[in-house]
Amino acid sequence: QGPNSIYKRVLLKISGEALMGDQGYGLHPPTVERIAREVKAVQEMGVEICMVIGGGNIFRGLAGSAQGMERTTADYMGMLATVMNALAMQSALEELGVYTRVISAIRMDEVAEPYIRRRAVRHLEKKRVCIFAAGTGNPYFTTDTAATLRANEMACEAIFKGTKVDGVYDKDPARHDDAVRYDRISYDDVLIKNLKVMDASAIALARDNKLPIIVFSLDEPGGFRGILNGEGTYTEVH
Ligand code: UDP
Predict the structure, then answer these.
(1) For 151-188, what is each residue's pLDDT tens digit?
(2) What are the Aspartate/glutamate/uridylate kinase domain coordinates in residue numbering (predicted)?
(3) Which CATH topology does 9-237 take?
(4) How many whole angstroms separate alpha carbon 83 and alpha carbon 106?
(5) pTM here?
(6) Which atom of ligand 1 is nearest to the CA of 60?
(7) Which end of the chain is more exposed for a tag (fewer CB within 10 A), N or C?
């Protein structure tokens, strides 16, 4: 454990869109590399890191089903999109000399390890970054729920949700100048006020297991490391 971090093991959740940079779609390798550097900086503090990356930059099940595709098939396509993002992140991290494993909820042994909880824990103990891919492996879920599930299974102390803004606001800060950021807010208030932190099933799963969710800005250079050092602004959902 590093000199400053108060956390030993965390899960970083980012949406697929965080990897597309200014493009409207897909992967932007310099952006992937920038986030990989953020992860490396935290790993250098001795923190054990899990990652879950969404797939929305490539494919979303709901969007597919809105266009007439069968919902579960569309969801599987979304899960496959998360595998692509996970591989891109693995490549960027390994380029920086960080050891990683991609662990898939859907078996594809030539591409990624299957998810075996004890094995994943062992990787973390060996300081390998575990990138959990393919969501929960089930349609009708999201990668937010997958992140909460894996964070619980891996006994992470908190989920760090990297977004474009530095926390949870009472209304969209991009559209309202008078939006106010919460320092701390309860799971129930997030649900009642329908605030966009994570989807409701993910919030409920975190609440039932008392897993804090820390929402912070991934656009702030050094932001992830700073938050783990207790610096910067963020919202803690507790
Ligand atoms: N998905 C799924 N089950 C899961 C996780 C994801 O079916 O456990 C599918 C779902 O279709 C979703 C897509 O994968 O729309 C991409 O994930 P998500 O929307 O969570 O990505 P993000 O918004 O974080 O980029």
Answers:
(1) 999 999 999 999 989 999 999 998 999 999 999 999 99
(2) 8-217
(3) Carbamate kinase (3.40.1160)
(4) 9
(5) 0.96
(6) 15
(7) N
Q: How confident is the model at residue 1 (pLDDT cuts 50, 70, 90)?
A: very low
Select from 215, 201, 73, 219 the least CA-distant residue to 149: 201
Q: What helix, strand, coil percent values describe the chain, rounded to 5?
A: 40, 20, 45
Nearest to 105 by CA among 68, 78, 66: 78
| Centre of ligand 1 from the C-alpha of residue 198, in Å | 12
| Amino acid symbol at 76 | Y
Burial of 110 (C-beta count, 10 Å sphere; 0-12/13-18/19+):
exposed
Q: Within 136-180, where are the H helices?
A: 143-153
Q: DSSP letter at 128?
A: P
The rounded Å distance from CA 55 to ligand 1 centre is: 6
Q: How far is the CA of 26 from the centre of ligand 1 (A)?
A: 15
Tens digit of each residue's pLDDT (9 = 90 or more) over 34-57? 999 999 999 999 999 999 999 999
Q: Which two tokens stand for residue 27?
A: 């992967």
Q: Is 60 annotated as a binding residue?
A: yes
Q: Write phi, then psi, for 162 (nearest 5 degrees).
A: -85, 125
Spatial separation of the C-alpha atoms in residues 148 and 206, rounded to whole Å: 6
